[in-house]
Amino acid sequence: MSKQVPTLDERPPDVGELTPPDRTLMGPGPSDVHPRVLRAMSTPLVGHLDPSFVEIMDEVQELLRYAFRTDNRWTIPVSGTGSASMEAAIGNLVEPGDTMLVPTNGYFGGRMRSMAERAGGDVVEVDAPWGEPLDPVDVERAFDEHQPDVFGFVHAETSTGVRQPDVSELTDIAHAHDAYVIADCVTSLGGVEMRVDEWGVDVAYSAPQKCLSCPPGASPLTLNDRAMEKVLSREERARSWYLDLSLLEGYWGDERAYHHTAPITNVYALREALRLVAEEGIEDRWDRHRAVAGELKAGLRDLGLEMNAAEECWLPSLNAVRVPDGVDDAAVIDRLLDEYDLEIASGLGDLEGEIWRIGCMGRSARRENVEYLLAALADALAEQGYEA
Question: In what order do the strands lie in the sheet with 355-359?
Answer without folding.
Answer: 318-322, 355-359, 345-346
